[in-house]
Write a structure and sequence with these properties.
Number of helices: 3
Structural class: alpha+beta
Shape: elongated
Order of helices and strands: HHEEEHEE
Radius of gyration: 21 Å
Oligomer: single chain
Largest sheet: 5 strands, antiparallel
Number of strands: 5
Strand order of the largest sheet: 4-3-2-1-5
Length: 122
């Protein structure tokens, strides 16, 4: 009896094929598909964010907020307020940003207006 299972194509196989054979038209099409998939994944991640969950901030400006961790305190539409943990509060304080001043006596700073699409559950 022969095995009728089709071979599995890996991401490495696809990448090698693209590098060696893809045309400009193929690359344009792939770019569109990748952008659409990225947007779908961000929307899926945003939908999982609720008040009280622990999160990490990603893909945001100012860059000092990237990788900050905390707890979602409130959600207003597509944005959240995140109370940063103590380590992230210290990091943000020493980033010395004019827009995001963190007073010396604050242990857990809350940042507002963080897009839900920039939050990941941890």
């Amino acid at each position: 009896m022969s095995d009728t299972t089709p071979p599995t194509t890996t991401l490495a196989d696809v990448t090698r094929y693209i590098a060696a054979h893809a045309t400009e038209e193929d690359i344009t099409r792939l770019h569109t598909v990748i952008r659409e998939r990225t947007n779908a994944l961000r929307a899926q991640a945003a939908a999982s964010i609720t008040t009280g969950v622990a999160v990490k901030i990603v893909d945001i400006r100012p860059a000092a907020l990237k990788e900050c961790k905390g707890t979602v305190k409130s959600i207003d539409g597509k944005h959240a307020s995140v109370e940063l943990d103590e380590a992230s509060t210290i990091d943000l304080r020493f980033a010395n940003l004019k827009r995001l001043r963190v007073p010396d006596d604050v242990k857990r700073h809350t940042v507002t207006g963080i897009p839900l699409s920039c939050l990941r559950l941890i």
